[in-house]
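Dear colleague,

Following up on Tuesday's group meeting, I ran the structure prediction for the two-component complex that the binding team flagged. I've pasted the input sequences exactly as they went in, so you can double-check that nothing got truncated or mislabelled along the way. The structure tokens for the whole assembly follow below. Feel free to forward this to whoever is handling the docking comparison.

Inputs:
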Amino acid sequence: MNLYQNQNVVNYLDKVCAQVKCKEVHYVIKTELLSHLEERVEEFIAKGLAENEAIEQATKHMGDPISVGIQLHNTHKPKIDWKLIFFATLFLGFGLFTLYTIQFNDLLRYDLRVFYNSALYVLFGAVILVLLSNLDYRKYQKISSYIYIVTIAIWVFALIFGRLEAGLPYIIIGPFSVNIAGISPYLLTIALAGLLTKHDWNNRKSLLIIWALFLIPVILYLASPCFSGLLLFTSAFGVLLYLSRAKLYQIALTFILPIIMAVLAVLSQPYRMERFTIFLNPEVDPGGAGYLYIQITEAVKAAGYFGQGFNLSAVPELHTDFVFTYVVYTFGWLAGILLFFAAMAFFIHLFKVVKEVRNQYGSLLIGGLATLLLVQSFWHIFMNLGCLPITGMSLPFISYGGSQVVVQMLILGIILSVYRLKDIVLLNKI
Amino acid sequence: MKVNKELVKGSTAIMVLSLLTRDAMYGYQIIKEIDKQSGGVFVFKEGTLYPILHALESEGSVESYWLESDKGRRRKYYQITQQGNDQLKEKGAEWNQFKNAVDQVIGGIKFEPVPKPKCS
């Protein structure tokens, strides 16, 4: 008995699903109820009813479609992550306020309307965030391998033919210049989340593929060279391996080779080692490599609990790589500590959500992306206190980032879209 | 015999879970089983079983998988999990307590025997 074309049955199923707001589960619900109706109808026909009458009786036995639909809707309600929205508003608001004080106190060494520009980018990012949060994130999984291949291809192209800006390969698309090494951690994490979902860790051959997928970007980061990107990508990759249930020794094996490569790269060129360790002892070269470290440490030391006001001039790039130093110096230690704990609370919340999400792809996707934000935030904070080597790391949501803020809000949109369906177990089940 | 609606709703989850301790079942099969074992007392609207099943699945008490029958019909089978077993023990104990309390209160009163309900 096939009833999927019967008008009464279709009407009944449509009425049920009209009540269920979460569209992603409609197909599964319809399939299950249809199967039930078909069995019921067959039984009535066996008892001697005519087909039409059997169908009418069967839908009657099912009960009022609207009340069934409402009950199903209550079970499969899309969820909104209000905590994330609260934190995002807090950070973006504080970031805009900070940039406002930088712009209107003329604290930059060049003319840049950081507040106005950033406000525009945040508005644009908000539109993207809202759009993405309502999409079905499972659609990205299918294009994972394309995202990976296209990212690598553009990157290689930029390395060979692109323009160098501040030592990094850029690719020019119309009026935009794209720092491909800079945005690659995000793109690769999205791609690898899909590629690692349901990965069979017992298959040796496929283990080699995973290694290759990891090593190609590592080589490109070293060739660019982009240390911050390498650090972000490697951390996110580690978390992806963990979340996809790789065994501990497999994670260790994956990381041994790049560590050896990095060590060799550093050893082969001693100046790199110097650049890396100067933060431990900046006084060795106060006029050169140690200069910036000394300036930051002094600014932070001078801050006091309530700050020194709007007059920090010894540190460059206040609006990007040193925004946390600026916040501590200007608004004081208390503000810095509050911001630090707010960031901690935000990430604790994010990783709780990562654990709660039922769908493995969803969990990998937001786990990897949250790791990128986490490593970037805490590296920035400790670097701004003079405790880590200086490298290009702005503070997510707070620094003046231009297109980076848009990318960060795009990540929030993806996290919201995963959260929306987090409790729904009917996904990908047929 | 008419049984209070709320009473049915609250106990359906327990009945479903205890049926599933024996075997994995699909929705229609569960309805048939409840009908058979309760002697036709629980004639609830069949559609309302699915929100209950889906809620149990959401909270992790049951798991599901799809299988095709010989006739090519796709059926969604539900299977109890460890968490479901624990929940059943807890709810079952609550239920027994409730049942005993009711028995104690109304135990002193003598009722006319109720005629055996007919299957509808």
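The interface with chain A takes residues 26-28, 44-48, 50-51, 54-55, 57-58, 64-66, 73-76 of chain B (CB under 8 Å).

Cheers,
M.
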